[in-house]
């Protein structure tokens, strides 16, 4: 069993820091929520690297919001529900579609510059959207522009303190409440931080897989520490694999945005044939899980490791203007989007599940909140609609701050941790352990799954459980412990769900089964795995 705390500590012997609100992680969720909270509270923001190291920075496509007069909240809600394959919570989707535009205007107030054309926002369309509603910045650098604007504001905010290069080890709890966090400083010393509210903005679990569009820091830290603290973790079997990441020798798995297909790009197999008409009536704009599995099928049929994305039929001017970042990145590797087909393959991209929250962003542990990819608000269901992630972060970030402003002051005490029980150190190559975990997840818990593979994967992961009895001190060791925790959660959830839906595909149960499985999967450290019915109004 995974222990309550990942390290030994004696709370009475640790230095302590008191604040009002603790924000763990950066990205749009952490930055926006911290800025909003700092308007009325003292905020301590803790990042394990820096403000610019997050998935948000790499978000290209944009942010979905109902801005156009031709669009409506009902249209966006319908698109979100369809993509979510029956597992969205209607109330959460309703919150998103109605409160998203105000969040966008707040981003603009904080200094974000979205692209405009003829005095209006330059809206584009992405896969599974029925309307042009995606705001973008600098063509295809939306995430970077949002992080730039918000980061600049945090640096001049007098009530917001930032700790870079600090690793949050675990959450401190007492009597079913979160009282703060145990933090390791860059020099290896530890400190207890207490606050009236703690917000997990730690991003996703992309590093569970060998091929991912996520940065190195996406190791599921928030989900893992929330699980150890006893929070409900929901729908971890639903991983979104982005259909089109660059697949070229010497190049990283760079994201080729869905917006490229939104602007009319074709997918071709290595024979040069378009193939999406064989898989879905929406062709290249089908939901991501459909497109990703279609690409995998074509790769297998043609014995290739990639397919092509082709936008050469569009003008060079449009391509360079709309996708300057992607164009320049590909050009660095000798690939010219205006004349070349770009080799792509699926890669792990987004975690639909996470720490279960209510509509205020609060988890099953009082005073512990989660925002962004680390959370499971009910918006995304079994498959996230493109560009809903950034809007979800700002909408629920605001709701979290509203809830925190109504909280009375919290107690500055917590349960003590284990002491002097772990002495042995980790031996063997950690890089090899991590690579094996990633390869096993691709093989057994990837785009296609079945009972035998999932059971084999789960058995292999459980052999690594003695890791938690070791004295883990290095950041890389602690990240691996969190990855292992999340891998177990994903695999156990995937084994439990005997159907195919959204980002979860079982070869042995290839059909969607609403009668038995229109339910969420909940895992709790203390009570095990269970299911919970979806909102009846979806």
Automatic annotation (TrEMBL):
It comes from Cohnella soli. It catalyses: L-aspartate + O2 = iminosuccinate + H2O2. Keywords: FAD, Flavoprotein, Oxidoreductase, Pyridine nucleotide biosynthesis. The keyword Transmembrane helix does not apply. Pfam families: FAD_binding_2, Succ_DH_flav_C. It is found in: Cytoplasm. Catalyzes the oxidation of L-aspartate to iminoaspartate. Its main location: cytoplasm. Belongs to the FAD-dependent oxidoreductase 2 family. NadB subfamily. The keyword Oxidoreductase applies. Its EC number is 1.4.3.16. Pathway: Cofactor biosynthesis; NAD(+) biosynthesis; iminoaspartate from L-aspartate (oxidase route): step 1/1. Residues 20-390 form the FAD-dependent oxidoreductase 2 FAD-binding domain. Residues 434-527 form the Fumarate reductase/succinate dehydrogenase flavoprotein-like C-terminal domain. Its cofactor is FAD. InterPro entries: FAD-dep_OxRdtase_2_FAD-bd, FAD/NAD-bd_sf, Fum_R/Succ_DH_flav-like_C_sf, Fum_Rdtase/Succ_DH_flav-like_C, NadB, Succ_DH/fumarate_Rdtase_cat_sf. This is L-aspartate oxidase. GO terms for molecular function: L-aspartate oxidase activity. Gene3D superfamilies: FAD/NAD(P)-binding domain, Fumarate reductase/succinate dehydrogenase flavoprotein-like, C-terminal domain, Succinate dehydrogenase/fumarate reductase flavoprotein, catalytic domain.
């Amino acid at each position: 069993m995974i222990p309550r705390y990942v390290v030994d500590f004696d709370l009475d012997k640790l230095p302590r820091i008191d604040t009002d609100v603790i924000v763990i992680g950066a990205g749009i969720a952490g930055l926006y929520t911290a800025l909003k909270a700092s308007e009325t509270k003292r905020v301590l923001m803790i990042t394990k690297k820096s403000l610019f190291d997050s998935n948000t920075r790499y978000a290209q496509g944009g942010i979905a919001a109902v801005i156009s007069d031709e669009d409506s909240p009902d249209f966006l809600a319908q698109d979100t529900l369809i993509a979510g394959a029956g597992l969205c919570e209607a109330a959460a989707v309703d919150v998103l579609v109605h409160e998203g535009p105000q969040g966008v205007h707040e981003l603009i107030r904080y200094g974000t510059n979205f692209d405009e054309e003829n005095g209006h926002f330059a809206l584009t369309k992405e896969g599974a959207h029925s309307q042009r509603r995606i705001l973008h910045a600098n063509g295809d650098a939306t995430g970077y522009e949002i992080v730039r604007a918000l980061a600049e504001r945090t640096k001049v905010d007098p009530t917001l303190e930032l700790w870079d290069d600090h690793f949050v080890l675990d959450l401190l709890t007492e009597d079913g409440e979160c009282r703060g966090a145990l933090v390791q400083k860059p020099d290896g010393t530890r400190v207890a931080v207490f606050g009236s509210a703690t917000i997990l903005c730690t991003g996703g679990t992309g590093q569970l897989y060998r091929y991912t569009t996520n940065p190195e820091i996406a190791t599921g830290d928030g989900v893992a520490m929330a699980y150890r603290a006893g929070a409900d973790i929901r729908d971890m079997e639903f991983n979104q694999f982005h259909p089109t990441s660059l697949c070229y020798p010497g190049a990283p798995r760079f994201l080729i945005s869905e917006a490229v297909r939104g602007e009319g790009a074709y997918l071709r197999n290595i024979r040069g044939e378009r193939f999406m008409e064989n898989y879905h009536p929406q062709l290249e704009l089908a939901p991501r899980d459909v497109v990703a599995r279609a690409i995998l099928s074509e790769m297998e049929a043609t014995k290739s490791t990639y397919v092509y994305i082709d936008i050469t039929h569009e003008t060079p001017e449009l391509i360079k203007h709309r996708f300057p970042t992607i164009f320049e990145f590909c050009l660095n590797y000798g690939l010219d989007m205006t004349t070349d087909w770009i080799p792509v393959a699926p890669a792990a991209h987004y975690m639909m599940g996470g720490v279960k929250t209510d509509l205020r962003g609060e988890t099953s542990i009082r005073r512990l909140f989660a925002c962004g990819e680390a959370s499971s608000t009910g918006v995304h269901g079994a498959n996230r609609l493109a560009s809903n992630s950034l809007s979800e972060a700002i909408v629920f970030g605001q709701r979290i701050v509203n809830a925190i402003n109504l909280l009375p002051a919290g107690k500055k005490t917590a349960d003590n941790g284990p002491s002097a029980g772990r002495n042995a150190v980790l031996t063997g190559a950690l890089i090899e352990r991590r690579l094996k975990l990633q390869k096993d997840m691709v093989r057994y818990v990837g785009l296609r799954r079945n009972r035998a593979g999932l059971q084999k994967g789960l058995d292999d992961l459980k052999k690594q459980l003695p890791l938690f009895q070791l004295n883990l001190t290095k950041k890389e060791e602690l990240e691996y412990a969190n990855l292992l925790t999340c891998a177990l959660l994903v695999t156990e959830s995937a084994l439990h769900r005997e159907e195919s839906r959204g980002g979860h595909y079982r070869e042995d149960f290839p059909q969607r089964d609403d009668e038995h499985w229109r339910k969420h999967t909940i895992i709790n450290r203390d009570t095990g795995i269970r299911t919970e019915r979806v909102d009846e109004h979806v």
